[in-house]
Write a structure and sequence with these properties.
20 strands; about 400 residues; six-stranded mixed β-sheet; binds P-hydroxybenzoic acid; 13 helices; FAD/NAD(P)-binding domain; alpha+beta; D-Amino Acid Oxidase, Chain A, domain 2; binds 8-demethyl-8-dimethylamino-flavin-adenine-dinucleotide; eight-stranded mixed β-sheet; globular
């Protein structure tokens, strides 16, 4: 088989890149290790930056998001009983969209199906070769048969555990990493949200986040030690912990119910530099991971896709390589800004095991500063709604 762009990974990065390229008349083949239903069962991101909303609309997948997504003009940060509202709209003129990654992915699959795009599920043992030549190719096993896909370029959209990044020789790349000593336990429940906007809650009992998907679907997280297992957390224990972290008025009035999904995610900051090796380009989680505190992971994947899509269209249609030569540097600038924001917000909002008494006071003081300074709130809002592309 032959195509212009081979895309490894059919998560949000791979599907969005394929969708934009196909609409511009560039051919793609997406190779995904798992099934479509598996991709669609992963509950992950919930907040879409205003710039990413525009890219999704440009890709022709904005209609349902605009109908069913919930625009949010602000969010709350709390520390025990202190609640600070950050009014994004007043401070920046922009909003974010609350719309699940699962829905974004479903919309992308539907749009790709309607265009007759090629997405191959259940591929195993993907190997990428000849990336330092003009004729790279990808080999994979499907239903026990080894296949070969020739292409002009390869997009590595296969997440943190994929093969693309590992295909780059170690001496040609550098990794930067910070692993945090806790994870997030997430619960999805068919209950009305605790609040009409997100609450990022710091407290003497640790961090919690009250988020949502729609009027009758809530998403909550609490900070847990890395050694905890999902089985350690009954629903009752989860709700008790969550309420102990939220401001008491919210805790007293919130609805609880049976969990319909429960999972633990470790928190990590990670960047691989550069994003390009020969004809391979890394996109999204295959190149970088942020802790979920700033809601930046999916949004960074979308900005990477935006840069690479324009660069690849130029390369394929006009032969100009300026865009692909600049891709890594352009994308990394935005990536490091989001890394800084997510790291800062994670540090500001979590309890670190064994920390001294000074640490909690610094967190309280940071929040107090946010409550008193419009400049501090504006800085937060600019980062949260997303830095310009
Ligand atoms: P994905 O989603 O990991 O998709 C990669 C795909 O590649 C496939 N794959 C392979 N395919 C072929 N061959 C191989 N060898 C392969 N290896 C892997 C995988 O099966 C998969 O389908 O990466 P992508 O597309 O770059 O998307 C990134 C986002 O998923 C991620 O950044 C966000 O979910 C992060 N994130 C959040 N981001 C936000 O912007 N806002 C949020 O509110 C937010 N909340 C979150 C989050 C992530 C979380 N977890 C669980 C990590 C909340 C959580 C709890
Ligand atoms: C979510 O709704 O899943 C969510 C929202 C905001 C975050 C992380 C996750 O920062």
């Amino acid at each position: 088989m032959k195509t212009q762009i081979a895309i490894i990974g059919g998560g949000p990065s791979g599907l969005l890149l394929s969708q934009l390229l196909n609409r511009a008349g560039v051919e793609t083949v997406v190779l995904e290790r798992t099934s479509r239903s598996h991709v669609l069962s992963r509950i992950r991101a919930g907040v879409i930056e205003s710039g990413a909303v525009d890219v999704l609309r440009e890709a022709g997948v904005g209609a349902r998001m605009d109908r069913e997504g919930i625009p949010h003009e602000g969010c709350y940060l709390s520390d025990d009983e202190l609640m600070v509202r950050i009014n994004f709209h007043e401070l920046t003129g922009k909003k974010v969209m609350v719309y699940g990654q699962t829905e974004v992915t479903a919309d992308l699959y539907d749009a790709q199906d309607a265009m007759g795009s090629t997405i191959i599920h259940g591929v195993e043992n993907v190997e990428i070769s000849d990336l330092d030549t003009e004729t790279p190719f990808v080999e994979y096993t499907k239903d026990g048969v080894r296949q070969r896909l020739d292409c002009a370029y390869v997009a590595g959209c296969d997440g943190f555990h994929g093969v693309s990044r590992k295909t780059i020789p170690e001496e040609k790349r550098r990794e930067f990493e910070r692993v945090y000593p806790f994870g997030w336990l997430g619960v999805l429940s068919r209950t009305p949200p605790a609040n009409d906007e997100l609450i990022y809650a710091n407290s003497r009992n640790g961090f919690a986040l009250a988020s949502m998907r729609n009027k009758m679907l809530s998403r909550y997280y609490v900070q847990v030690p890395l050694t905890d297992k999902v089985e350690d957390w009954t629903d009752e224990r989860f709700w008790d912990k969550l309420k102990s972290c939220l401001p008491s008025e919210t805790a007293a009035t919130m609805a609880t119910g049976p969990s319909i999904e429960k999972s633990i995610a470790p928190l990590r900051s990670f960047v691989n530099e550069p994003l390009r090796w020969g004809r391979l380009f890394l996109v999204g989680d295959s190149a970088h991971i942020v802790p979920p505190t700033g809601a930046k992971g999916l949004n960074l994947a979308v900005s990477d896709v935006h840069y690479l899509y324009h660069a690849l269209v130029d390369a394929v249609k006009t032969g100009s390589e300026t865009g692909i030569d600049e891709y890594s540097e352009r994308a990394l600038k935005r990536i490091w800004s989001a890394m800084r924001f997510s790291w800062q917000m994670t540090t500001m909002m979590h309890q670190f095991q064994g920390e001294d008494s000074f640490a909690a006071q610094m967190r309280k003081s940071t929040l107090m500063h946010l409550s008193q300074s419009e400049t501090a709130r504006r800085e937060f809002a600019e980062n949260y709604i997303g830095l310009p592309y």
